[in-house]
Design brief:
This protein has 283 residues and is an alpha+beta fold. It has eleven helices and ten strands. A six-stranded antiparallel beta sheet has the order 1-2-9-4-7-10, with helices on both faces. The protein has a four-stranded antiparallel beta sheet with strand order 3-8-5-6.
């Protein structure tokens, strides 16, 4: 979603009072916008919208407190919002907000709920890291280049995706409903850009032995290595086809998709029936 369309969607959800009045900083990327607000109203009404493209927002209280509905605001907390659900954000009088707005398709897939209910986020290391990263970008903007924009945007998306997965995992009902193979694929998607993430790291995160993990995948006619290669190839293909990232070389695309080199990326693309890197870029 172009950032102009994303900004229009933001205004539709919160209205001009929250999105314009009190706005003290904004940083825009292709599928993400970060904004900082001096909160002037004790209530922000988040209105559900049935738009062609959905918006996911992670709202942080950088100063003061935040709460959902009629609960008591908690200082320096965060909330996860989605475009299909309405809610009210309650702020303390001294609040400063930092908001990460994302095109939902960039952070939601079949591994996470397509329309999460509004929820207050626990202060985990991942949520705290996303908050600090967003604050640094909106309050101390750097000179932007196509390469820096790409790297920052990917970090934002991956961190937001991690917050969504973390919320799913810490939801007791959701946690017990997720099968080991489903959780394994969630972790692969989250860590696919890390070339050092492999069988041992996946087994560690699932709290199983590598042999048990290999047996789980073998029952479905595949292997952890093949699945990791495939999710990395899918990421590489999406980057190669996106003109926003034409400034990156094939080797840089391979590195950002989690491959050790361009040759490994070519083999991965071939394995999923995708064209070569050169053909993928020839639109």
């Amino acid at each position: 979603m172009p950032n102009g369309a994303l900004r229009r969607a933001i205004a539709a959800h919160l209205g001009p009072d929250a999105t314009s009045h009190g706005l003290i900083g904004v940083q825009e990327y292709r599928t993400a916008v970060i904004s900082a607000h001096r909160v002037r109203s004790p209530r922000w009404r988040w209105t559900a919208q049935q738009a062609d493209r959905a918006v996911t927002a992670v709202v942080f209280a950088s100063e003061g407190g935040l709460a959902l509905a009629e609960t008591t605001p908690t200082r320096r907390t965060g909330a996860l919002l989605h475009s299909t659900h309405s809610t009210t954000l309650q702020w303390t009088t001294d609040a400063l907000a930092t908001v990460v707005w994302l095109d939902t398709e960039s952070v939601i897939d079949t591994s996470v709920p397509p329309a999460p209910q509004p929820v207050i986020l626990p202060r985990t290391a991942l949520a705290t890291g996303l908050h600090a990263f967003a604050e640094s970008l909106v309050h101390r903007p750097e000179v932007q280049t196509r390469v820096s924009d790409y790297i920052v945007e990917r970090l934002l998306v991956e961190m937001a995706y991690g917050v969504l997965l973390e919320h799913r995992e810490t939801d007791a009902a959701g946690f017990h409903a997720v099968r080991p193979m489903h959780r394994a694929r969630m972790l692969m998607l989250l860590n696919r850009a890390d070339a050092d993430y492999g069988l041992q790291e996946l087994a560690r995160d699932l709290h199983v032995s590598t042999r048990h993990l290999q047996r789980l995948f073998a029952k479905e006619g595949t292997s952890p290595a093949a699945e990791l290669r495939n999710v990395r190839a899918e990421l590489a293909l999406s980057l190669l086809r996106d003109p926003q990232y034409d400034a990156l070389t094939t080797s840089q695309i391979a590195a950002h998709a989690g491959f050790t080199n361009a040759a490994a990326m070519r083999r991965g693309l071939h394995a999923i029936g995708a064209p070569s890197p050169q053909a993928a870029r020839y639109r």
